[in-house]
Design brief:
Belongs to the bacterial solute-binding protein 1 family. InterPro entries: Bact_solute-bd_prot1 (IPR050490), SBP (IPR006059), TAT_signal (IPR006311). This is ABC-type glycerol-3-phosphate transport system substrate-binding protein. Its main location: other. By secondary structure, this protein is of the alpha/beta class. The chain folds into two domains: 196 residues, D-Maltodextrin-Binding Protein, domain 2 (3-Layer(aba) Sandwich); 206 residues, Periplasmic binding protein-like II (D-Maltodextrin-Binding Protein, domain 2). 40% of the residues lie in helices and 13% in strands. It contains 18 helices and eleven strands. Strands 1, 2, 3, 4, 5, 6, 10 and 11 form an eight-stranded mixed beta sheet that branches. Strands 8-7-9 form a three-stranded antiparallel beta sheet. Helix 8 crosses helix 9, helix 13 runs parallel beside helix 15 and helix 17 runs antiparallel to helix 18. The longest helix has 16 residues.
């Protein structure tokens, strides 16, 4: 087993904790649930428009501390404090916004919250943010679509953009004299050979778990890779029922499960457990976003680090699925212009145009895409990526990403994605046919307004 996945940017914050804070898509929007709000740093007493607060999951506090300190040094007399939620960030934040007691200025959200938060006037349009048009023009393809509310106005800036990456254990492949698979048929053939020869009992360790909707994300990635396109069109109509690539993907998953080519307990294994199967050299293939590949390539976290390599996704198109998280302005902020300065610092270019946080925290420390072309192509960022990735394969894969589009802003999307994971698991277990599962998901999406 590989050791725990400590973040290189903050040794006391695990990658799993960071994921829980920034990709907690499984939390259901609503007023139920409990959580503890912890305030760290300076608090906004509502007295001065110079006193501002950033709202986030408490697990990432150590990651953001140097960036809060940098802001307070370089943006004085503005003063940035922090408001952190100890657990169930999205549920607690939704409660606070609905109750009108959100005292913070800038907050983040995952996919599926922008529509309801903007309609309820809990978050503010960024139409008056200086330089917004320039930021939007610099964004990677598809990013801007995820930032717009039902009224067409921009309500958010990118926090990060993730993409599912395919990774292989080169030492395992060398034992069967094989290169990374270029097609899913080749992948299946290699997996069978690796198992038959005792090189790996479970050659593939995917994240087929409900946590953070990971099984849904991995399904979207494999469908895109083989020419199935996005699982939603720009109007929000599902591309599921009758999609031959979606059906073929599920049939392959059923084969992998029935032949024991994936761990039998993978549906109930937690995130760290799945991570350690591949990081510990027990499997030959896996798939996860950039920040996790960083961990797999770190010998302090992964005993197979020297053998792990990111490669292009197998499939006809070699595409993958992308997703993100976003910064927003609280509607009740008392320092509107100053809060705009903060959101531009966290999710934009900042006053000096350097993209300090997107470049140094998101792209360099975490290995994620910033959502901006200029940052993701910056020589310093590419040099940092080269420490853990095959940069040509990584940038080639990032250029072949397929987002789900505006559907990810919809209020019903988190519920749909949660349901999708359960349905996909039932199909793999043989409790439903592939066509039944795809139709059920398509019908649910089609019934939403």
């Amino acid at each position: 087993m590989a050791p725990s996945n400590a973040s290189p940017a903050a040794p006391h914050v695990t990658r799993r904790s960071f994921l829980r804070g920034t990709m907690a898509l499984g939390a259901v929007a609503g007023l139920g649930g409990t959580g503890l709000l912890t305030a760290c740093g300076s608090a906004d007493d509502g007295g001065s428009p110079n006193d501002l607060q950033m709202h986030h999951d408490a697990a990432v506090g150590p990651l953001f501390k140097p960036y809060v300190d940098y802001f307070n040094t370089n943006y004085a007399p503005l003063k940035l404090g922090t408001s952190y939620v100890a657990q169930d960030y999205l549920t607690v934040t939704n409660q606070q916004l609905a109750g009108g007691n959100a005292s913070y200025d800038v907050l983040f959200a995952d996919e599926g919250y922008l529509e309801s938060w903007s309609k309820n006037q809990w978050v503010r349009s960024l139409k008056d943010l200086p330089g917004l048009d320039k930021l939007v023009a610099n964004m990677n393809p598809g990013v801007a679509d995820a930032l717009k509310g039902p009224d067409g106005e921009v309500y958010a800036l990118p926090y990060f953009q993730g993409a599912e990456l395919f990774a292989v254990n080169t030492a395992h492949l060398k034992k069967i004299d094989a290169s990374a698979p270029a097609t899913w048929a080749e992948f299946l053939e290699q997996a069978r050979e690796l198992k038959a020869k005792g090189i790996s009992q479970t050659p593939y360790s995917p994240y087929w778990i409900k946590y953070a909707f990971l099984m849904w994300h991995q399904f979207a990635a494999e469908v895109a890779s083989d020419g199935g396109g996005s699982l939603f069109d720009p109007s929000g109509k599902a591309n599921l029922a009758g999609n031959p690539v979606a059906r073929a993907t599920l049939e392959r998953w059923r084969t992998l499960y029935s032949e024991g080519l994936v761990p039998k307990d993978l549906f109930t294994t937690d995130y760290g457990g799945v991570t350690n199967v591949f990081g510990g050299g027990k499997s030959s293939f896996s798939m996860r976003y950039q920040a996790q590949v960083v961990g797999w390539r770190d010998p302090k976290q992964s005993s197979a680090a020297k053998d792990i390599k990111n490669v292009l996704m197998p499939g006809k198109t070699r595409q993958t699925h992308s997703f993100g998280a976003y910064w927003m302005l609280s509607y009740n902020t008392e320092g509107e212009k100053n809060a705009g300065t903060v959101i531009d610092y966290l999710g934009g270019a900042g006053k000096d145009g350097s993209f300090h946080v997107p470049k140094n925290l998101v792209a360099t420390a975490l290995g994620l895409s910033s959502g901006y072309r200029s940052v993701d192509s910056d020589p310093a960022v590419l040099k940092s990526w080269a420490k853990w990735a095959d940069v040509d394969a990584l940038t080639g894969q990032l250029a072949k990403t397929v987002p789900l589009g505006p559907v990810t802003t919809k209020t019903w999307y988190p519920k749909f994605a949660d349901m999708a994971c359960a349905v996909l698991q039932e199909v793999v277990l043989g409790k439903k046919s592939s066509d039944q599962g795809l139709k059920e998901l398509s019908d649910f999406a089609g019934a939403q307004k």
